[in-house]
Design goal:
Structural class: alpha/beta
Number of helices: 9
Shape: globular
Largest sheet: 6 strands, mixed
C-alpha cells in the first residue's frame, strides 16, 4: 500500500512587497512525486509564491516547511545543503550567453561537487543528451532555438539530480508543438529522477497534461480559491472564477485541449 508523503507544506502563508499584500492565508501540501502547478491569472502572484517556496523571499507571515522543517529555522550550513537538493528552470532560461551549453550545464557540477574536469564534462554531456541535445554541447545559446534553450536550461536544472524541481512558466514563448514536447520531457525527467516538480503555469494544455496537484491563486481576493488535481477541480468546484479559468471561459466541465 502506497502512503502519500507530504514533502512541502504552506501554512498560513502571506506574501507581500513592503505594505502591499500579494496573497494571504495560503494553505496547501505538495506530495512526493507530485507535479504541483501554481496557477491563476496574470498578476496574481504565481512567480512570487514560487520564489517563496525556493527561499528567495521571506514570507510576511506563515511558514513554508520541507519535510516538516522550516527553511527559516535552518542554520546557514543546513540551508545551503538543502538548497543543493533543488533545481530551478527560470522563465527565460537564464543561460549564460558567453558559455556553451556544456559549460552552462557544468556550472553547478563545478561549484557543488568534487568531480574532475573530465567527469564534469562527461556528466554535462549526458544531461544534455537526456533532454535531446546530444551534438549541441559546443553551441552557444544564441545559436539555438527558444525550445532548445529551454531544454538546455532544464539540463542544467537537473545537473545535480535534485529531489525538487522548480519551473517558472516553462512553456512560455514556445510554439504548441515545442510546448507539448517540453511537457513530455518534464514527465520523463520527473519519473527518471523520482523528483517532485513545482511549476508556475497559466497554459491549460500544459496544466492538464502534467499536473497531479495544484493551487489556484485569485487576483481579486488575493488568496487561494482551491487546491487539488486540476481535472477534479474542473469537475467538482462550484467557484465561478475557477471554472472560468479552467474552462477557458466556456463553463464546460470536460477537459478540452484542442
Amino acid at each position: 500500500m502506497t502512503i502519500d508523503r507530504t514533502v512541502i507544506e504552506a501554512e498560513g502563508l502571506t506574501l507581500a512587497y513592503d505594505e502591499k499584500i500579494v496573497q494571504e492565508n495560503l494553505f496547501f501540501q505538495v506530495l512526493a512525486g507530485d507535479i504541483f502547478v501554481i496557477m491563476g491569472g496574470s498578476g496574481c502572484g504565481k512567480s512570487t509564491l514560487l520564489r517563496h517556496l525556493i527561499g528567495l523571499q521571506r514570507p510576511e507571515r506563515g511558514k513554508v516547511r520541507y519535510e516538516g522543517l522550516d527553511l527559516e529555522d535552518m542554520t546557514e550550513e543546513e540551508r545551503h545543503r538543502f538548497l543543493k537538493r533543488m533545481g530551478v528552470l527560470y522563465q527565460q532560461g537564464a543561460l549564460w550567453s558567453s558559455m556553451t551549453l556544456e559549460e552552462n550545464v557544468s556550472l553547478p557540477l563545478f561549484y557543488h561537487t568534487s568531480l574532475s574536469v573530465k567527469m564534469t564534462a562527461e556528466l554535462a554531456r549526458f544531461k544534455l543528451s537526456l533532454v535531446g541535445l546530444a551534438g549541441f554541447e559546443n553551441f552557444y545559446p544564441a545559436e539555438i532555438s527558444g525550445g532548445m534553450r529551454k531544454r538546455a536550461a532544464l539540463a542544467r536544472a537537473i545537473a545535480l539530480d535534485p529531489e525538487f524541481l522548480f519551473f517558472d512558466e516553462p512553456s512560455a514563448g514556445l510554439d504548441p508543438l515545442s510546448a507539448r514536447r517540453l511537457d513530455e520531457l518534464i514527465l520523463e525527467i520527473r519519473d527518471s529522477l523520482g523528483a517532485t516538480v513545482i511549476m508556475v503555469s497559466h497554459e491549460l494544455a500544459s496544466i492538464y497534461t502534467v499536473a497531479t496537484n495544484s493551487v489556484f491563486l485569485d487576483t481579486r481576493t488575493r488568496t487561494m480559491l482551491a487546491t487539488g488535481n486540476p481535472r477534479n477541480l474542473l469537475r467538482e468546484s462550484e467557484d465561478t472564477t475557477l471554472i472560468e479559468f479552467l474552462s477557458r471561459g466556456t463553463g464546460k466541465r470536460e477537459v478540452s485541449l484542442l
